[in-house]
Specification:
Number of strands: 12
CATH class of one domain: Alpha Beta
Strand content: 15-25%
CATH superfamily of one domain: NAD(P)-binding Rossmann-like Domain
């Protein structure tokens, strides 16, 4: 079996690469390193540093050369611009990467006979839902740039399946966490930010009152499902979720218990949520406060029965065990970096 993974130096892409490598799969790994990190490519049993190809998924000629005559069975498109504020700040680039780049993979996959493409999609598409849990086949169109790029990508995927008989599965990730989550990002994911601040003994600043609840999925559970969906024909969308959710405060309490900390969090105004991106507040039409409020207080809970029924999958790693593993890894990383 031969598999291409895009975004292979990222948090999820690198974990997927390692899992497939352990199964003896021949890999073609690419990343343009706009978000990926070399450190993610180092594992105890293997290093992918000298194997990865620096390439952008929008590079039509480059992708074609990697696929032509290579009999690639599967493409996993994990590449993309995921941080919501990054997408809002530069929507042209977000659309170019998340949509145009994906269509480039679809078209080249069509030309060179790739058996199946597995696309990293998102449960952020459900941002406007009011009834829970959310299911794959019925939801309101999203508002923000990032989920709209993924929503449109799914529509193109279905078009290629309907028009050419291709096979594409879109995995709608819940909030993914696990070792190697990016704690150094300008606006880190909540889990990474929380651990980083506790490690340094700093007071974390959360927004709203901490009671907002999200659905999380541990990266190893996601990777197992990503491999399992290689079977199945046509077009499919699958929620990758725990079908459980936790509040900010609940997760912070678990993390403090594991790390032996006792630091009361502070809570900031919703209006300052993306203050590290001043461009969003400038111009004739600044971002609306109600959009920020909605994003901060968004409730998510995704039904995962489709994944269970069709692919025989179910999540195995609970929140406390998952956070313990992440904390061990991130604390080791931060200790090497120093303050």
């Amino acid at each position: 079996m031969k598999v291409m993974i895009t975004g292979a130096a990222g948090f999820i892409g690198s974990q997927l690469a390692y899992a497939l490598w352990k199964k003896g799969v021949e890999l073609i790994l690419i990343d343009n390193f706009s978000y990926g990190k070399v450190d993610n490519l180092e594992f105890s049993e293997h290093s992918f540093v000298d194997e990865i190809i620096k390439m952008d998924i929008r590079d039509n000629e480059g992708i074609a050369k990697l696929l032509e005559g290579k009999d690639v069975d599967y493409i996993y498109n994990i590449a993309g611009i995921a941080p919501l504020p990054d997408c809002q700040l530069d929507p042209v680039e977000a659309i170019s990467v998340n949509l145009n780049g994906f269509v480039n993979l679809l078209e080249n996959g069509r030309k060179y006979g790739v058996k199946k493409i597995i696309q990293a999609s998102t449960n952020a598409m459900y941002e406007n839902e009011t009834e829970f849990p959310t299911f794959e086949n019925n939801f309101k169109q999203p508002t923000l740039i990032y989920p709209n790029t993924k929503y449109c990508a799914e529509r193109f995927a279905q078009s290629y399946c309907d028009t050419y008989g291709m096979n594409v599965t879109c995995l709608r990730f819940a909030n993914v966490y696990g070792p190697h989550i990016d704690c150094l990002r300008k606006q880190p994911p909540f889990v990474a930010y929380m651990i980083r601040e506790l490690y340094y003994g700093r007071t974390p600043v959360f927004h709203s009152d901490g009671t907002q609840r999200r659905d999380y999925i541990y990266v190893d559970d996601l990777v197992r499902l990503a491999i399992m969906v290689q079977k199945g024909d046509g077009f499919d969308c699958v929620n990758v979720s725990s079908n459980m959710n936790y509040s900010v405060n609940e997760m912070y309490d678990i993390a403090q218990k594991i790390m032996g900390k006792n630091i009361a969090a502070e809570y900031a105004s919703d209006a300052h949520y993306w203050e590290k991106y001043p461009g969003l507040y400038e111009g004739a039409y600044p971002i609306k406060n109600e959009i920020l409020n909605h994003e901060i207080n968004k409730y998510s809970l995704c039904d995962n029965s489709h994944a269970k029924e069709k692919y025989g999958w179910q999540p195995e790693v609970g929140m406390e065990e998952g956070l313990r593993r992440v904390i061990e890894n991130e604390c080791e990383l931060l200790s090497k970096l120093g303050e």
